[in-house]
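Thread title: Can someone regenerate the structure for this chain?

I was given the following input by a collaborator and told the matching structure tokens would be attached. They weren't. Posting the sequence so someone can regenerate them.
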Amino acid sequence: MKSDQIRQTFIDFFKKHGHVEVPSSRLIPENDPTLLFTNAGMNQFKNVFLGLEQRDYKRAVSAQKCVRAGGKHNDLENVGHTRRHHTFFEMMGNFSFGDYFKKEAIRFAWELVTKEFGIDKNRLYISVFQDDDETAEIWHKQEGVPRERIYRFGEKDNFWRMGDTGPCGPCSEIFYDLGPEVGGDPKQNVMGGEGDRYMEIWNLVFMQYFEDGKGGRSLLPKPSVDTGMGLERASAVLQNKLSNYDTDLFQDIIQAVAKTARREYGSDPKTDVALRVMADHARAAGFLIADGVLPSNEGRGYVLRRILRRAIRYGRQLSHDSLLPVAVREVVRKMGSHYAELEQRKNIIDRTVQDEERRFLATLDQGTHVLAQELDRLATGGTLSGEVLFKLYDTYGFPVDLTRIMAAERGFKVDELGFEQRLEAAKEKARASWKGKTISGDQAFLVTFSQNVQRQFGETPFTGYGTTVDNAKILKLADGKNEVSELKAEQSGVLVCDKTCFYAEGGGQVGDRGVIRSPTGEAEVLDCTKMNGVHLHHVRVLDGELKVGDPVQLVVDQRARQSTANNHSATHLLHAALRKVLGAHVQQAGSLVEPERLRFDFTHPQPLSRAEIEMIENLVNEEIDKGTVVEAEVMPHKAALEKGALALFGEKYGEEVRVIKMGEFSIELCGGTHVAHLSQIRLFKIYSESGVSAGVRRIEAVTGERAVQYALTGLRETEANRQVIGSSSLFAELYGTATKALSGPEWSEQKIEEVKKLQREIQNLKGKNVNVDSLAESARPFRSDGIEGRWVFADIPMDDRKVLSDLSDRLQDKLKPAVVVLVGQGQNSHPLIVSVSKSLTPKLNAGKILGEIASALGGKGGGRPDFAQGAVPSRQNLAAAQAKASALLEG
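Best answer:
Regenerated them for you:
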């Protein structure tokens, strides 16, 4: 049975039994700062299990994308070396939210495995928690599993917890016997001991208790079920393979890479590891990029970069051809039909992978050479220092695990602690220059704090679409670390009201600022965020005190709100204009909307031309000029999409969505604040267009008063420049009878070229005016190592390297055989040139001579044996440099 059939059979089976199919959530967890990546099928249902969220169904089935490649759950280093470790995998699962429990869950699992999938019962084993007699009896009496095939294990193996507090309960697993050819004793390896013979294929978690964090457990009023069956392992069983990598999930990718690399899978263990790594990492990379993660040097982007670079490095072992893009394209081809995001974003996936491969290969060989040199200096079996690890990481982009692998291949260890200390010192240095504008408090505390508020009071409603002033009551206060009953003057903390007109940061829009006043005090609101549906006002008390239960007046900074609304509405117009000018391939890849400016990241393969930017600005400003009323309507998600609303990638939408419509020009799903009519924006002006990463561009722009002042300032400077060059006014050219003068970019570019040409002519004239005969007469003879000639050391007051090179040639013609050393004169650095007659190069090397002289002047450089050039920051030690040359040549 093919993997696509297995996945669909699983889903169809549970749909037949009343389960609602829930699409996989993104690999970036929604509103869960405790997770780096989605790593289990239950992640998207976490708040449902905690009682913080209600769904309109009690039974669900899903095939969930998961990644375990960073943080606590990290399988990266084992990938490729074992049969079943992966960075990316699919977890199929069925869930009950207070509906059915153990009997039904076990019956579903056994029926699907033995009847729908047709797996031989005699090859199945069961594990249960050691004290869970109920589950053991259900397996034996209800499903007929012999008692000798039911194994009991302790809390470490068969008891599940969500955290220190919260739902918990026993779990039960189904194991498959791969056969005697694998080897292993079920008593030892059913629960992950030595050997691979008995493979876990399904885990059923029974959320039966609530743990209070102090050792106490109470029965949950509505016990629930969370199960997981890995598609990769299920495919191995149903395709009769001993390794997940031999299934169709990986083989198509492996064979595509092997064909390009002209290798054969199964012919060599080292080749097989490299092919398995590339297949696994291509899957992880493709899905991470599709879900909005891009390579970077921190957080999720750094994990992606590690995955990509590990794959590229293994690919280099197979061939010098480009391999990773081949693997990722095969992932898109194979899995794009079920996961539409792969097909929708295949262009950005491809460009990102190609760009990362190109960038890394540019430094891989150089970094590998540096690593080899460092290892050569060590005694056999030595340890590579943390300093070298950090140098390879910081200078050459080598992830520490990649250095570890390469060192281990030669029998060396690495000092990871030393590396971490240097890395933390570098981060601390960066943090020292950063001052945040919000009081974030302890993130873990805020998560718990907001959960407690949600349980006690429910979600806090937002009233700010129609007003910036409201009356409310304080429900909870915290000082950022602990819940408190009051906050006094000069204290900072978090405040929760029963409702709020303060917009909470989300969808790229920053949180509102303003003030909160009570009968006994006043606080400044520095920011507003939202967790678990609860609005958290980050405040600093200015006067008096604020207490739980106080009635308060909420006042949003109206000017900042209006400026933010201007920028947010302009962002929608910009998005629509980009798609009209550049094409429908443009998708949002990130945004920032704040009072001062807007920033919009979007997918596009190359920089925008000046003409394209002007077209985009014109389109947006034409819509602003129309003054169209901005319509906001709440409707079902499906109806909004049918209406043509653009759903922004990466945003999480509920059943009911808010649709923002700006005439026929733009319609998007959005929860942010917007202008009432487009004329409020006044003016839109782009001030920056740049690249963010492969295939992603960034536009920064201003609106409203800032845009007006920006435009007026530029216009005044333009008019002043026109007066200086004697050109007619811009107004006269645009609206009068004056002929358009060359005073724009074309004129400036022409004048710059004229200046450059004149500078080159001046340098050439200076070069011709240098008295070559006089310099030649100053040459001194040398005799060294059986060769002889003349050498000259000259200080030339110019920085044109071509002129200096020509001068060197002229001196060589007069002095051959000779060594010529020329030191130029620039502004910030000074050129250095060394030439050696070809007849002398068997004994003298221009590059080595230049290196010695440059070091005396604090510079560097290199080149061929007969010609080398470099640069030096200072000319103060010319005498010492000349002495160094004399010592090299004259002894």
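The chain has a mean pLDDT of 87.
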